[in-house]
Design brief:
Layout (H helix, E strand, L loop, with lengths): L5 H16 L11 H7 L11 H12 L21 H13 L10 H18 L6 E5 L2 H19 L4 H4 L8 E5 L4 H9 L6 E3 L9 H9 L5 E6 L11 H9 L4 E5 L13 H4 L7 E5 L11 E5 L2 H8 L27 H35 L4 E3 L7 E6 L2 H14 L5 E5 L2 E7 L7 H22 L1
Parallel strand pairs: 2-3, 2-4, 4-5, 5-6
Antiparallel strand pairs: 1-7, 6-7, 8-9, 9-11, 10-11
Helix pairs in contact: 1-3, 4-13, 5-13, 6-8, 6-12, 9-10, 13-15, 14-15
């Protein structure tokens, strides 16, 4: 009879202990970074230790410093939970330890990633011929897609970026909304394109299509238009049809930053949000957010797969070369784990109907949360809750900030603070497949208690 290796058994026991309690424990870490750093202080030991003992020591030392991101009451930033099948597949990826860069060297995991790519395109209604690359997160997905855009536009001007670099290259304009995510700016900076020219947005953060047309008319340089599927505060989606039409008239490349919003395209009832999005040239998302796969799980999609391979393709005598582009020719990494396997597992476990139910369930929970919070005295829901984001403000900035502080200290729920439209706000990002009516009710109750305590404190 097979028995697990002691170190694997120790890891499994620790993982099960964490997973079994993640929904009931307080969301914040029990210890801060200083305490954890002190625990791991000291020199590299001269002698090694038993692997099982190492795993048990690691788990017990780290667990007090873990943030319960998998809790159904975790609403911080935009971080999803993890579907069981995706988590288990990720464990297999580590055990298999395959370098997923060359298809003929590690065909097993590459075949799975190829299938995952097809399913993603199908589920999102994107061109079946598009190139798909699996990267670390939305930042690198934006970087990957925008690298393809940069090189394609330069090639159209007769400039070979791979051979000549960027010094002396024709200028590329980048237009983006004033409420774009900071990861777009980071990707542009990494690519040597600099800061984008900004286009105005409406009160929900949606790009002004008329303003975009004016900006396009005002210049004649090759242009990338960065759009957004899911504003990080309001959850709003840019008017893709109008934007794509305006961009096509100027031969501009349209990129969609859909870190968490791209998955709305899988839901028939949300097509009003994503209408026209399939007409873009590239898309970026992070499956850890809405699809609930483990970290790391970014996906870069480019309608012209040749643009992707021209940006990242390379060869060396020691590499294997298949008849079609290898995975490493679609992303910045030559060596990487098979991070597309958990994406396949998530989609296989869900199926089309399950994926629709997952995304729609997040939207339903967000709208339920907005109704509950909006019914509390003094609470204003500032956004149109069309997707998974809920943003509230309470009376004034001081009250809002005090309520947030109490919520974070109490620890039952974990939203995040921000500022939006000139006000301090509390932002709830509904991203976990386990967030249900009970979790919503507990969250509304926690906010009500914090609000009462704040009023007593300020009285």
């Amino acid at each position: 009879m097979w028995s697990p290796r002691p170190e694997l058994a120790a890891a499994l026991a620790a993982a099960e202990r964490w997973l079994d309690g993640v929904g009931s424990r307080p969301v914040p870490a029990a210890e801060d970074i200083d305490a954890l750093t002190a625990r791991f202080a000291g020199p590299l030991p001269a002698d090694g230790r038993d692997p099982a003992e190492v795993v048990r020591t690691l788990a017990s030392a780290v667990e007090p410093g873990l943030l319960a991101i998998g809790s159904p009451r975790f609403f911080g930033w935009v971080m999803g939970g993890t579907l069981p099948a995706a988590l288990a597949a990720d464990w297999l990826v580590s055990a298999w330890d395959q370098n997923a860069g060359m298809r003929d060297a590690t065909p097993g995991v590459v075949a799975v990633e190829d299938a995952a790519a097809r399913w993603v395109l199908d589920a999102l209604g994107l061109p079946s011929s598009a190139g798909v690359g699996f990267v670390t997160g939305a930042t690198m997905a934006n970087f990957t897609a925008l690298a393809a855009a940069r090189d394609a536009l330069l090639a159209g001007m007769g400039w070979d970026q791979a051979a000549l670099g960027l010094a002396g290259a024709p200028r590329i304009r980048v237009l983006a909304g004033t409420e774009r995510h900071s990861s777009v700016d980071m990707a542009l900076r990494y690519l040597g394109l600099g800061a984008p020219e900004l286009v105005g947005v409406d009160d929900q953060g949606r790009m002004d299509a008329a303003g975009l047309r004016r900006a396009l008319d005002a210049g004649d340089a090759p242009t990338i238009v960065c759009t957004q599927a899911g504003n990080v505060h309001s959850g709003a989606f840019d008017p893709f049809t109008e934007i794509v039409d305006a961009a096509r008239a100027h031969a501009a490349w349209v990129h969609v930053d859909g870190a968490f919003g791209l998955w709305a395209a899988a839901v028939p009832g949300l097509t009003d949000l994503t209408h026209g999005m399939d007409g873009a040239d590239s898309w970026a998302t992070d499956a850890h957010k809405t699809l609930n796969t483990p970290y790391d799980s970014g996906i870069a999609i480019v309608a012209d797969p040749g643009a992707m391979s021209r940006a990242f393709g390379h060869s060396a005598a020691y590499l294997l070369h298949s008849e079609v582009p290898d995975p490493h020719e679609k992303v910045p990494e030559l060596s990487r784990r098979a991070r597309g396997v958990p994406v396949w597992a998530a989609l296989a476990a869900l199926g089309r109907d399950g994926l629709t139910g997952l995304v729609q369930g997040l939207v339903d929970a967000a709208q339920m949360l907005a109704r509950g919070l909006g019914g509390l005295p003094g609470v204003d829901v500032l956004n149109e809750v069309v997707y998974t984001q809920v943003v509230i403000a309470i009376v004034d900035d001081a009250t809002t900030e005090r309520v947030l502080e109490l919520l974070l200290v109490e620890g039952l729920v974990r939203p995040s603070g921000s500022s939006w439209r000139g006000r301090s706000v509390i932002r709830f990002s509904v991203s976990n497949h386990d967030t249900d009516a009970e979790a919503v009710a507990q969250t509304v109750g926690a906010v009500a208690q914090a609000l009462d305590a704040t009023r007593r404190h300020l009285a």
